[in-house]
Design goal:
Radius of gyration: 18 Å
CATH architecture: 3-Layer(aba) Sandwich
Largest sheet: 7 strands, parallel
Number of strands: 7
Shape: globular
CATH class: Alpha Beta
Mean pLDDT: 96
Order of helices and strands: EHEEHEHEHEHHHEH
Strand content: 5-15%
CATH topology: Rossmann fold
Bound molecules: NADP nicotinamide-adenine-dinucleotide phosphate
Length: 247
């Protein structure tokens, strides 16, 4: 039986991915900043462990407690929507701490066991915002684009150990808590000189058209974990697939 460790399982894509793999007979280590065992069905194949990807001690404990794993999913992430002028550098650093450095730190912590066993898959969840520039998303997009570039280089250096690296790129998913979480980082709101742009952005959110479902992301992670021949970048969701095929 294979084991997957997923970061950020308290909601959204992480929670759905944990559920998806449990239903398909994998052993699942669902990690959360604040563990809540009742979010997922009871199973002797499920372990819920505390993990904050910005905290080195927390990473060390989680990786030690997890033991051998086959697949790591770096899903934990935070959003921020604002003009650069409306953000403190503290917020900029916070976003990178979770989305970018958290992904690197988790990968670094897991790689020794993958290298020694000559097997393993690292799946990094980034975003389609890295495929098409959008207003008010400079910092968030940069944090995810850095993970794309990191993953491409990492894939080269770990291929010799039979370790695979894949990217899953979801589109816009209004059903998760992501939008609400991002709003908490908007501080004083969008600065007035950018208000016309902001109105356009919020109007587009009201009528998004095709969107990404958490289930789409879980399915893409499943493909990345199980199909060694799958592409390096996997768009997840109707909007993501349309964008990828347009580009
Ligand atoms: N929703 C979208 O439109 C969208 C689109 C493209 C990509 N994404 C990406 O998809 C991933 C999942 O997002 P989602 O939509 O499922 O959002 P979500 O519902 O807000 O879930 C984000 C998860 O990350 C966790 N998290 C945040 N900071 C963490 C930290 N320091 N350590 C560990 N866990 C942390 C959250 O835990 P807490 O409950 O403790 O906060 C939560 O479990 C993110 O990387 C996001 O950037 C989202």
């Amino acid at each position: 039986m294979k084991t997957i460790l997923i970061t950020g399982c308290s909601s959204g894509f992480g929670l759905e991915t944990a559920r998806y793999f449990l239903e398909r007979d994998w052993s699942v280590i669902a990690t959360m900043r604040t563990p809540q065992a009742d979010l997922l069905p009871l199973s002797d194949r499920l372990r819920v462990l505390p993990l904050d990807v910005t905290d080195a001690e927390s990473i060390r404990h989680a990786v030690e407690a997890a033991g051998p794993i086959d697949v790591l999913v770096n899903n934990a992430g935070v959003g921020v929507l604002n003009a650069l002028e409306g953000m403190s550098m503290e917020t900029v650093r916070d976003v990178f701490e979770t989305n970018t450095f958290g992904t690197m730190a988790m990968t670094q912590a897991i790689l020794p066991q993958f290298r020694q066993r000559m097997a393993g898959v690292v799946i990094n969840v980034t975003s389609t915002v890295t495929m098409k520039a959008l207003d008010l998303l400079s910092v968030y997009t940069a944090s995810k684009a850095a993970v794309n570039a990191f993953s491409e280089c990492l894939a080269l250096e770990v291929a010799q150990f039979n370790v695979r690296v894949r990217l899953v790129l979801p589109g816009l998913a209004p059903e998760t808590r992501f939008g609400d979480n991002a709003r908490t980082r908007m501080q004083g709101g969008v600065p007035e000189p950018y208000s016309a742009i902001a109105q356009g952005v919020f109007a587009r959110f009201e009528k998004p058209g095709p969107v990404t479902l958490a289930l789409d992301v879980a399915g893409a992670v499943w493909q990345a974990a199980n199909d060694p021949a799958c592409p390096f970048r996997l768009p997840a969701g109707a909007d993501a697939v349309a964008l990828a095929s347009a580009g």
